[in-house]
Amino acid sequence: MNQYTDRRYVFAVAIILVGLVFMIRLFQIQVIDKSYEQYALSNAQSVRVIYPARGLIYDRRGEIMVYNKAAYDIMITPRLLEPFDTTELCEILKITRESAIERLNSAKAYSRRVPSVFMKQVSYENAALFQEKMYQFQGFYVQTRTLREYTDSIASHALGYVGEVDQAILDSVPYYQLGDYIGVSGVEKAYEEHLRGQKGKTVFLKDVHNQTIESYQGGRLDETVEVGKNLTTTLDMELQAYGEKLMSPYVGSVVALEPSTGEVLALVSAPTYSPDLLVGRNLGVEFGKLAIDTLNPLFNRALMAQYPPGSTFKTIMALIGLQEKVISTRTEHHCYYGFYVGNIHTGCHLHETPLDLIEAIQNSCNTYFINVLKSILQDVKYTSTAEAYDNWRRHLRSMGFTEPLGIEMTNELNGNVPPASYFNRIYGENHWNYLTIRSLAIGQGELLVTPIQMANMTATIANRGFYIAPHLVKEIEGEDDIDDKYREKHFTTVDTSNYGPIVDGMDLVINGGPGSTARNARIEGITVCGKTGTAENPHGNDHSIFIAFAPKEDPKIAIAVYVENQGFGTTYAAPIASLMIEKYLTREVKRTWYENWVMQLIQPVAPVVKKNNISNDGTEE
Fold this sequence. Notes:
CATH topology of the largest domain: Beta-lactamase
CATH class of the largest domain: Alpha Beta
Mean pLDDT: 87
Structural class: alpha+beta
Helix content: 25-40%
Number of strands: 20
Distance between the termini: 118 Å
Low-confidence stretches: 35-41, 603-621
Strand content: 15-25%
């Protein structure tokens, strides 16, 4: 009897344990583990993603630059496929049977449950025909997207382009799915989260034959699509187009800024390309062609090219000399065709002598500014040349020369102003002085700047001592303001009072008498202040440089022009800058003869003849 009772208890315990196991498993499946619920729902639901229209892009005057056009992708969910007529599918979509099979296999390899692109960017006619016959192709549907369209073939580097997401993006940003598009460069990339909007979705109920029959739960699971926000850029379309026109025969760049705000009015890199080349199904092919072009149109010279500043840098030497009180506006130096110390010689061109500071800027005297460097590096306030040099470099850092300025684009490079330790390594500590590095005084040697840094330097002088980081977006729809860093004033280490004489010297460069190096940049009724430069180029002809701002009082535009391999700044860069200033301030160019002359001025690039260690502009080779 006891044995029978014991067995009964064992069976009861076993049944209870089995029941508990089932109950725990059911609880896990129904409450904790949602995968089965999702599986059941996926068999009853059909989810369609609604892609938002990408935000529009306008110029500073409200002219539209970038808008959208409809594009149609054929999507596929392999799990929902049923047998279909492959021949008819190929005829509708104008593809081969082999291509259809390859696309089908790729979709299955990606996911059998998640929709992916079977064929992207089909024509409206093909998409409409396919939609009419879509009942024959279970598991397929048409997805509407948008592609970029441009009102003019300008500003490709500034605007950037949109491309398909890669695997790295898919792995790192959950928002994107295979086949989605994302800003790849320029404003499109920098403001991607604003421009793209937010995807929506519509959930439908399916029957046992996978046919969509009605909205699921009255649309309670639907998500509303949010269109992208429109952007107003700082660019002036007319000025941008005009700059690209003037630079079309040349290699180089133009950067124009509004000094008081740091807004970029024009960002020209030449040669360039039409932005509509990098749109649609041919993007990869066209990008490949541009990438192997020997003129390198994809290279954004405005932000990435590093050049010596040449004689434009003399304005900065004057500012630092005044700030350190090693010179005054009355300081004079003699110059007889150059600077001489023993057998050391740096050439200069013919001009009156002696010159004071303002006259030295007007006449671009090499000798004068080498002597300014001498005074700075031999200043008794410092215990060594290296200490004085690093203080000189400190001033340059405050002017934005050593680091990227922070424009929204990710490919901006910094300049190069080496620290004293660099020269210590080369020459040995306490074994170098101003003579060793005298070429820095005239913007040569190890100094390198980018065109946008040159334009920023010009804006700083125009503002008499501060700059605001250059930026490309003026307003974002629905937002109170842009990033605070594009409102912050960066004051240099040079007192405002020291900028007046430099501005007066730059005025005389253009509007003075004999000895002025850029009289050809004058504009009737507008006082333009500028400085010419000719930067030595070890690979060929020297580069033509010009910086300017206007008007002299309350400046509205600051500009830097770099024309590669074309020699004197006054011959090539100055006319381009002058015409662009006239275009921006008056909205028309009356000097059409000058414009035509500039467009036909280009000369064959050939080695420049140099004699006696002096280049054509009188600077040291």
